[in-house]
TrEMBL record:
BP-aspect Gene Ontology terms: phospholipid biosynthetic process
Record-given protein name: CDP-alcohol phosphatidyltransferase
GO cellular component annotations of the record: membrane
InterPro entries listed in its UniProt record: CDP-OH_P_trans, CDP-OH_PTrfase_TM_dom
Biological source species: marine metagenome
Record keywords: Membrane, Transmembrane, Transmembrane helix
Length: 197
């Protein structure tokens, strides 16, 4: 009875769990609610891991739908995570613009992937050797550090701007690499066309 689209769409309740857990931290002041975010990351990883495999095994035929919905819901989950960290930040730290910047920058990585895919027909989701699995491990470790070592989120005032700056630098480097690759492809095609003419 379990189909690939059920697994794909489970990202919606996992995103809801992320935001609900963070809202509970904000409302109660009890950081242990944030373990719910880590649980959601693990559950989303498992359903994301098996949705394509189930679809192929059952010959569901939802290749384009699966590609679209899987990546759109990954984006939704990413937004949920950023909202969660913004919700648990101390209001007096005034980090909302930094979180907005992080959302814009992480979205930039996704935009780069899809534009590069459209231009080259090569889909890349690993940046600087870091892919979805490594990012999930990073978030699980980050959550544990926050809950155990910084339950008052005092280090957010340093960590959040630093993370935003690192993301920005990485996006500039990635954009430059993408631009250089596409430029080289175009110049090679132009040279081949000139030789044929």
């Amino acid at each position: 009875w379990l189909e690939t689209y059920h697994l794909t769409l489970l990202t919606i309740p996992w995103t809801t769990l992320v935001i609900t857990s963070a809202a509970q931290v904000r409302n109660t002041g009890e950081i242990s609610w944030f373990w719910g975010v880590s649980l959601a990351i693990i559950l989303q990883y498992l359903t994301d891991l098996f949705d394509g495999a189930v679809g192929r095994a059952r010959n569901t035929g939802l290749v384009k739908w699966g590609f679209y919905m899987d990546h759109f819901l990954d984006y939704l989950f990413q937004c949920g995570l950023i909202v969660a960290y913004a919700l648990i930040a101390q209001t007096e730290q005034n980090l909302y613009w930094w979180f907005f910047g992080i959302l814009a920058l992480t979205s930039g990585y996704m935009v780069n992937s899809f534009l590069r895919f459209a231009a080259t027909n090569e889909f890349e989701i690993y940046f600087f050797g870091i892919g979805p699995t490594e990012i999930r491990i990073y978030f699980l470790a980050l959550n544990a550090v926050i809950i155990i070592l910084d339950p008052a989120r005092e280090w957010f005032s340093i960590g959040v701007p630093t993370y935003a700056c690192l993301l920005g630098f990485g996006l500039v480097v990635l954009t430059w690499k993408s631009h250089a690759k596409l430029w080289a492809i175009d110049m090679k095609a132009k040279h081949e066309n000139n030789n044929d003419g």
